[in-house]
Design goal:
Blueprint: H1 30-56, E1 60-64, E2 84-92, E3 96-97, E4 100-106, H2 114-117, H3 122-125, H4 129-133, H5 156-159, E5 165-172, E6 175-179, H6 189-195, H7 206-209, H8 238-244, E7 252-259, E8 267-268, E9 271-279, E10 290-296, H9 305-339
Helix pairs in contact: 1-9
Length: 340
């Protein structure tokens, strides 16, 4: 047998393969680290102050309407079946500058539970005909309805769709004026335009497209009757899209409406208001609570004190660490000088 070639498997004799490229490795001295910590700390403290002040400027009012306490406005609706109406009066002390956003909130509701979170068929929600007639097994036990007909939309998320409704009135001189609520564009753009699609209409009718399917068990009406607006019906209904984007935490709020119609788009004036609630959604069985939130927004979004506080804490820690390192450095530097 011949001798093996010693060059086989040997990398080329280049600066890159032989790791001879020029490199720079910083030497972290006290003169570099201490000013760096101070600059980072001051920067984060400045940003934190700005975020905290901005968040404090957000106007917000939160109204609990669970009705779990005796004498509460909606206490009589907690044991009702459906469409129980209650009225929640409240007062706005200072004018809310527009635009004003209206949210509904739920507590102790674990949408992040894995079996709940995967209980959907994305192909069906994209309008796929085959998936419409044969939903994925992930939807079980909300996969098939009566007479083994497929449920559309299937799954636990869709079946538990939030269905309380609200009307807002402004009271002036004992006269109630309805505040117009806008449901246009409350969902994510990608959900409405990319992820969700209605199946192709048959003979110009969305109802015909869903023929051979049944509504989810807890829904009072089928998906093709969610709205009279064809651009807000079926799988692309705005309220449905908002609900299908599940929350990461057990206490959450979801956008319900924007107050952006007519004169109300500029502001919500101070005064007395009345919220008419159609109470449908049960929460007492899992010790949950329901609330409505009215909030303004800023360049950083809604009210979020935590973000500003987090920046302040991190910046303060950087300053404290810089001071500690300065003390340690000064102490041991003096000791070294003495020894020398």
């Amino acid at each position: 047998m011949g001798k093996e070639n010693p060059k086989v498997g040997k990398p080329d004799n280049t600066a890159f393969t032989q790791q001879r490229l020029p490199a720079w490795q910083p030497i972290l001295s006290a003169g570099i680290v201490l000013p760096l910590f101070v600059v980072i700390g001051l920067t984060f403290i400045g940003i934190g102050i700005g975020l905290f002040i901005t968040s404090r400027n957000v106007q917000e009012i939160e109204l609990d309407y669970t009705g779990d306490q005796e004498g509460a406005p909606c206490a009589g609706c907690t044991n009702a079946t459906t469409n129980c109406k209650c009225t929640l009066p409240f007062k706005i002390e200072n004018k809310f500058e527009g635009p004003v956003f209206m949210y509904y909130g739920l507590t102790n509701y674990y949408q992040n539970y894995r079996k709940y979170g995967i209980s959907r068929d994305d192909d069906q929600l994209y309008g796929n005909i085959d998936s419409l007639k044969s939903p994925a097994n992930f939807c079980s036990p909300y996969q098939m309805g009566a007479k083994q007909m497929p449920i559309a939309p299937c799954g636990a998320i869709a079946n538990s769709l939030f269905n309380d409704t609200f009307r807002l009135f402004y009271k002036v001189n004992k006269v109630y004026t309805e505040v117009l609520l806008d449901d246009n564009g409350i969902s994510w753009w990608t959900d409405y335009n990319v992820k969700f699609r209605n199946p192709p209409e048959i003979n110009g009718s969305l109802k015909n497209a869903f023929e051979g399917t049944v509504k989810p068990l807890n829904w009072p009406k089928p998906v093709y009757e969610l709205s009279t607006n064809p651009n807000n019906n079926g799988f692309i209904n705005q309220d449905f899209l908002v609900w299908m984007r599940i929350a990461a935490l057990p206490n959450f709020r979801k956008l319900y409406r924007r107050i952006s119609e007519g004169n109300w788009s500029r502001s919500l004036p101070a005064g007395n208001y009345s919220l008419e609630i159609t109470y449908n959604y049960p929460v007492l069985s899992f010790q949950g609570k329901k609330k409505v939130v009215f909030s303004t927004v800023t360049w950083m979004g809604g009210k979020n004190n935590f973000l500003g506080i987090a920046y302040l804490v991190f910046g303060s820690l950087c300053i404290v660490m810089a001071l500690i390192m300065l003390i340690v450095y000064a102490k041991y530097q003096v000791q070294i000088d003495r020894d020398m």
